[in-house]
Design a protein that fits this description.
The complex is a heterodimer of chains A (about 110) and B (about 110).
Chain A lengths: L4 E3 L2 E4 L5 E6 L6 E7 L6 E7 L2 E5 L7 E4 L6 E5 L8 E8 L8 E2 L3 E5 L1
Parallel strand pairs in A: 2-11
Antiparallel strand pairs in A: 1-3, 3-8, 4-5, 4-9, 5-6, 7-8, 9-10, 9-11
Chain B lengths: L3 E2 L5 E4 L4 E7 L6 E7 L6 E6 L3 E5 L2 E6 L4 E6 L8 E8 L6 E3 L3 E6 L1
The chains are: A mainly beta (about 110), B mainly beta (about 110).
């Protein structure tokens, strides 16, 4: 499979629990992005990496959110002490080197906090 | 004012007609402009992008950019029911940077 892969596809968790999502970008794509999308809205930027370096974080990314890309390949997004407002689709995208701006999205992880 | 604005719709057109989707943006420094299509429950998929003023055509799709008016549009010719989806406009300030999305316009193509 040559596309962006995200796991799990769906996650239901109780409020207060921690969750972790994984994203495997397209092979050799240097840039990896995380977005969050709620119903009826466009995706909102959370953070992005150039290889293993986290270059930008949105103000939306509170202290409960952390993202890593330790070896410049896959990335994880962790949400600690989940709240009902965290329920959303979490989208990962990747793009080749900075000279190529096209970003390709994975299928997303739908999080439901109950 | 949102950075990227789109009419949420729904926009309804008959099969075979031209669908016109519009988007305005607030940051004059924006460099790249993208149109994504998103089917219900699915992730966005890239339709096309445009960097320079004018028109860019790809099959049934034409993107139009007017930087002076801070306006970008997408025309879909010979609309098909399979084009029914939400169309997301996105802008990028810096090459390779983050995408800033509008809220999307829902398009419905009636047979």
């Amino acid at each position: 499979d040559t596309g962006v892969s995200q796991n799990p596809r769906h996650k239901i968790t109780k409020r207060g629990q921690n969750v972790t999502f994984r994203c495997d970008p397209i092979s050799e794509h240097n840039r990896l992005y995380w977005y969050r999308q709620t119903l009826g809205q466009g995706p909102e930027f959370l953070t992005y990496f150039q290889n293993e370096a986290q270059l930008e974080k949105s103000r939306l990314l509170s202290d409960r959110f952390s993202a890593e890309r330790p070896k410049g390949s896959f990335s994880t997004l962790e949400i600690q002490r989940t709240e009902q407002g965290d329920s959303a689709m979490y989208l990962c995208a990747s793009s080749p080197d900075p000279g190529n701006t096209e970003a390709f999205f994975g299928q997303g992880t739908r999080l439901t906090v109950v | 004012q949102k950075e990227v604005e789109q009419n949420s719709g729904p926009l309804s057109v008959p099969e075979g007609a031209i669908a016109s989707l519009n988007c305005t943006y607030s940051d004059r420094g924006s460099q790249s402009f993208f149109w994504y299509r998103q089917y219900s429950g699915k992730s966005p998929e890239l339709i096309m992008f445009i960097y320079s003023n004018g028109d860019k055509e790809d099959g049934r799709f034409t993107a139009q950019l007017n930087k002076a008016s801070q306006y970008v549009s997408l025309l879909i010719r010979d609309s098909q029911p399979s084009d029914s989806a939400t169309y997301l406009c996105a802008v990028m300030r810096n090459q390779g940077g983050k995408l800033i999305f509008g809220q999307g316009t829902e398009l419905s193509v009636k047979p």
